[in-house]
Amino acid sequence: SPAQADSLAARLLDGGHVAGGVRADDTTAVAFAEVWRRRTGAVPVRDWGARLHRLGTLTPPAPVPAGRGRPVGERDHEHLMRWCREFAADVGEAVTIDAGTWAGTRFAEKRYTYWETPDGTPVSMAGSNPLVGGQVRIDPVYTPAASRGRGYAGAVTVHASRAALAAGATDVVLFTDPANRTSNALYRRIGYLPLADFTGYAFRQPADQR
């Protein structure tokens, strides 16, 4: 709430902290961004937006594409890093992903699943964040362009979601780009229901706007 946003900003500033930005549901993000602007003079610049979905009843695609899901192993590491680089480029993330930087990226903490064709060729992947507070977030989901439109993304997401439930998750969630009708429709078909829109703001000092 706006009142809580003001209290949080005051606590951060009293502790000598500087906020680089905020990511939250739309109402919370706007409230905190406005409070931070008022207290510090920083200009909030919208730099991210996504729709949060939560899994209802998991519904495998019909028909399921030929192949199977499998955990990504150590022998797949070079291939996995390449796909993470391609995913990051697709969504506009400025990140270096190689053997030297991998451990410091947001991709390193995840568990990954591949969907592979009957001959063992990986065609899609899904990552999942560690279980925290009963929740697992599926991220990223990536299919190379040449393999899209064949149901692989839905199949690998179902496989990763099922693994999350088996590991004890009570909530399985994921974010989508609200403007991407294809991905939003896909996740709806396999059981993910829209929950809330989220927004990110970066805080820039007025001098940074020049």
Concise synopsis of the structure shown:
The chain has helices at residues 2-14, 26-40, 77-91, 152-166, 181-189, and strands at residues 21-25, 43-55, 68-71, 111-116, 122-128, 135-142, 171-176, 192-204.
Report on the structure:
This protein is α+β, with helices and mostly antiparallel strands. The chain folds into two domains: 2-51 and 198-209; 58-190, 3-Layer(aba) Sandwich (Aminopeptidase), CATH 3.40.630.30. The protein contains five helices and eight strands. It has helices at residues 2-14, 26-40, 77-91, 152-166, 181-189; strands at 21-25, 43-55, 68-71, 111-116, 122-128, 135-142, 171-176, 192-204. The protein has an eight-stranded mixed sheet, sandwiched between helices. Helix 4 links the parallel strand 6 (135-142) and strand 7 (171-176). The longest helix is centred in the first third of the chain and has 15 residues, at 26-40. The two termini are 32 Å apart. The mean pLDDT is 95.
- Biggest sheet, open or closed, and with what strands and sense? 8 strands, mixed
Element order: H for helix, E for strand: HEHEEHEEEHEHE
Strand content: 25-35%
User: In which order are the strands of the major sheet placed?
Assistant: 1-8-2-7-6-5-4-3
CATH fold assignment of the largest domain? Aminopeptidase
What gross morphology would you assign? globular
In whole angstroms, the N-to-C terminal distance is 32 Å
What does the average pLDDT come to? 95
Number of separate helices: 5
CATH C-level name of the largest domain:
Alpha Beta
Radius of gyration: 19 Å
The CATH homologous superfamily name of the largest domain equals: Gcn5-related N-acetyltransferase (GNAT)
DSSP helix fraction: 25-40%
Helix-and-strand structural type: alpha+beta
